[in-house]
Write a sequence for this structure.
């Protein structure tokens, strides 16, 4: 289960999977593995001829979830069933302009603390950023961030 959780592939509702293959106590079929559950749901429709409504209900998903899973597989193959990471993919608030201002401020006054840099970003750019975002941005740019 730890591996599924680490890969964000832990099914949040394994109890909703009522397909007999998963409920038979098989060591191979695991209702906690959302990728496996979605794959079997798709297979039941495309290979076994089950209706979308029946397969979705049997595997604990909605019809729109079935269509999303099918589109993901059509676009990316089996890896398309892996859940996508939630949240921002990059530092979207801290543009190169903002990071340059942080680096410049730190170069002029190395004693500036992270909370002071956060305040500088708020005042100069009107952005509310977390202190860890500032620290990460400065770490990426190799500027020491201090206390």
């Amino acid at each position: 289960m730890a591996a599924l959780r680490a890969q964000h592939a832990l099914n949040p509702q394994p109890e909703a999977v009522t397909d007999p293959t998963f409920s038979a106590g098989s060591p191979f079929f695991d209702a906690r593995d959302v990728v496996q559950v979605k794959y079997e749901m798709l297979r039941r429709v495309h290979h076994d001829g089950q209706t979308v409504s029946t397969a979705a209900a049997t595997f604990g998903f909605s019809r729109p979830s079935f269509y999303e899973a099918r589109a993901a597989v059509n676009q990316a193959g089996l890896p398309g069933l892996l859940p996508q990471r939630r949240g921002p993919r990059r530092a979207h608030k801290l543009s190169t302009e903002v990071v340059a201002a942080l680096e410049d401020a730190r170069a002029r006054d190395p004693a500036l603390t992270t909370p002071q840099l956060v305040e500088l970003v708020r005042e100069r750019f009107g952005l509310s950023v977390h202190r860890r975002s500032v620290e990460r941005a400065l770490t990426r740019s190799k500027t020491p961030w201090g206390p």
In short: The longest helix spans residues 63-76.
